[in-house]
UniProtKB/TrEMBL annotation:
<protein>
    <submittedName>
        <fullName>SulP family inorganic anion transporter</fullName>
    </submittedName>
</protein>
<keyword id="KW-0812">Transmembrane</keyword>
<dbReference type="InterPro" id="IPR052706">
    <property type="entry name" value="Membrane-Transporter-like"/>
</dbReference>
<feature type="transmembrane region" description="Helical">
    <location>
        <begin position="180"/>
        <end position="202"/>
    </location>
</feature>
<dbReference type="Pfam" id="PF01740">
    <property type="entry name" value="STAS"/>
</dbReference>
<feature type="transmembrane region" description="Helical">
    <location>
        <begin position="155"/>
        <end position="173"/>
    </location>
</feature>
<feature type="transmembrane region" description="Helical">
    <location>
        <begin position="101"/>
        <end position="119"/>
    </location>
</feature>
<dbReference type="Pfam" id="PF00916">
    <property type="entry name" value="Sulfate_transp"/>
</dbReference>
<dbReference type="InterPro" id="IPR036513">
    <property type="entry name" value="STAS_dom_sf"/>
</dbReference>
<feature type="transmembrane region" description="Helical">
    <location>
        <begin position="313"/>
        <end position="346"/>
    </location>
</feature>
<dbReference type="InterPro" id="IPR002645">
    <property type="entry name" value="STAS_dom"/>
</dbReference>
<feature type="transmembrane region" description="Helical">
    <location>
        <begin position="366"/>
        <end position="395"/>
    </location>
</feature>
<feature type="transmembrane region" description="Helical">
    <location>
        <begin position="30"/>
        <end position="51"/>
    </location>
</feature>
<feature type="domain" description="STAS">
    <location>
        <begin position="417"/>
        <end position="501"/>
    </location>
</feature>
<feature type="transmembrane region" description="Helical">
    <location>
        <begin position="131"/>
        <end position="149"/>
    </location>
</feature>
<dbReference type="InterPro" id="IPR011547">
    <property type="entry name" value="SLC26A/SulP_dom"/>
</dbReference>
<keyword id="KW-0472">Membrane</keyword>
């Protein structure tokens, strides 16, 4: 009789204790950690080269980030390690001041992340529109794919059929069994074939020299002066913000994939702790690693902190203890894994012609601006920032047109009543002053704002301007119907917004 699968909720899948009691789920977590560790090695080496440091700096950073975040982070199964975004930020500092200033910067960035996390910066995630999130996901998929192209250009022809075979294995094997992650099978098969048949193809060893010793605790050898602080602070602040943004966006993405909620404030604090630890072990720092997180969560089905912890442990064990063997893994296998991740990550529904025709144009513009800037700069933080700004501008423009002024009553020949309807803020209130008949109106004007909300000083200034224009013609204005918040804001600011007030 066929055994029924365990009936567990998404929340229960995240439980470490429950997973330890389930051999099947524990096996998935362990194997997922191994696959992620293998995928981390060439990435960490590449990012070390970008930052201008020895490969061991990136590899050790990936180890300490993964292990630390698995304990203190807020999003189970998310992978944090050395990343390209951080490498791009710190590269100029390494070039001008060297490795010791880099480690000091990483520690300061971690401290700043702790401060930002304590101030509740994670709560700002609620202001990220869905269209920005979709653009973030699609840009991520494109960047993952583009990052594999250097491994497919100017290589022996044998690389291409190897990549194809690995993709076929990862597509076909899950239809037969999910006991072992398909990416791991693909890596093992291609590695055995390469070694056994003596194929000469690019491998992990070609990416850079692997370390042969464990990381050691150290104190950055820099002068503890204000001058040093002035040098590292701008880089540390940029690294802290970029790292938090990418980590929180990735956490939200994993929330959606796993149908669970994570503690974003704890994740922000955890990133800070992980970077402080990494700095004291001579690492280059990092943040959530989106591609490897997708390998862990989507390709391998991991759901707990166990996979993240083991990814770091396996990474260190592989590069230090089994470096000679790991160096023989063909890059074709890892490239195939990341290509499959990029395909699985892209939100294909969002770019389907039917969806694009149905979606409001403003939403599509926001999504495309996020994708375009991210792909052009190679920095997800820039793309998300531009996407959010675009969404804000388009939203303000749309809401501005929802405000109207209507002539609703003439109680007597000397009185006219206007109703203002809509949300009054800087964008919508600018044209409000032109919607009244100052010359043709009678002596008494009543402006009813019971169907409006006053949100900022610009709106109060506009109402003051309307009152002033009527007063210049000897007419009086009464503003009625304000709700409590609008009345308080109007009372506090009215008549006090110009120097002559």
């Amino acid at each position: 009789m066929k055994q029924l699968p365990e009936a567990i909720t998404p929340r229960e899948q995240q439980s470490v204790l429950a997973t330890l009691r389930s051999p099947r789920r524990l096996r998935s977590e362990v194997l997922a950690g191994l696959v992620v560790a293998l995928a981390l090695i060439p990435e960490a080496i590449s990012f070390s080269i970008i930052a201008g440091v020895d490969p061991r700096v990136g590899l050790f950073a990936s180890f300490t980030m993964a292990v630390t975040i698995s304990i203190v982070g807020g999003r189970p199964a998310m992978i944090s390690a050395a990343t390209g975004a951080v490498a791009l930020v710190v590269a100029p500092l390494v070039h001008s001041h060297g490795l010791n200033y880099l480690t000091a910067t990483v520690i300061l960035a971690g401290v700043l992340q702790l401060v930002l996390g304590g101030l509740g910066v994670a709560k700002l995630m609620r202001f990220v529109p869905r269209s920005v999130m979709v653009g973030f996901v699609n840009a991520l998929a494109i960047l993952i794919f583009l990052s594999q192209l250097p491994h497919l250009l100017g290589v022996p022809w044998l690389v291409y059929p190897m990549v194809a075979v690995a993709i076929v294995v990862m597509v076909a094997l899950p239809k037969l069994t999910t006991a072992i992650p398909a990416p791991l099978i693909a890596i093992v098969v291609l590695t055995v074939a390469t070694i056994g048949l003596g194929w000469s193809v690019p491998n992990v060893g070609d990416e850079g020299e692997l370390p042969s010793s464990l990381p050691a605790l150290l104190i950055p050898d820099v002068p503890f002066t204000l001058q040093t602080f002035g040098v590292i602070a701008p880089y540390a602040l940029t690294m802290a913000v970029v790292g938090l943004l990418e980590s929180l966006m990735t956490a939200k993405l994993v929330d959606d994939i796993t149908d669970t909620h994570s503690d974003k404030s704890r994740e922000a604090l955890g990133q800070g702790v992980a970077n402080v630890v990494t700095g004291f072990f001579g690492g280059m720092g990092g943040c959530a690693m989106i591609g490897q997180t997708m390998v862990n969560v989507k390709a391998c089905g991991a759901r707990t902190r166990i996979s993240t912890f083991l990814a770091g442990v396996f990474l260190l064990g592989l590069v230090v203890g089994l470096g000679d063997i790991v160096a023989l893994i063909p890059m074709a296998a890892l490239v195939a894994v990341m290509i499959m991740v990029s395909v699985a990550t892209l939100d294909w529904h969002s770019v389907h012609p039917k969806t694009l025709r149905r979606m409001p144009k403003s939403e599509t513009v926001v999504m495309l601006s996020t994708v375009g800037v991210t792909v052009a700069t190679g920095n997800l933080a820039y793309g998300v920032g531009v996407g959010i700004l675009t969404a804000m501008v388009l939203f303000a423009r749309r809401v501005a047109h929802l405000t109207e002024v209507v002539d609703i009553a003439h109680p007597d020949e000397h009185t006219r009543v206007y109703a203002v309807r809509g949300e009054l803020f800087f964008a919508s209130s600018n044209d409000l002053v032109y919607q009244f008949d100052y010359a043709g109106d009678p002596d008494n004007i009543i402006i009813d704002v019971s169907q409006a909300d006053i949100w900022d000083a610009s709106s109060v200034a506009t109402l003051d301007a309307i009152t002033t224009k009527y007063a210049a013609k000897g007419k009086t204005v009464s503003i009625i119907g304000m709700n409590d918040n609008s009345a308080q804001r109007h009372a506090r600011l009215s008549g006090r917004l110009t120097g002559s007030s």
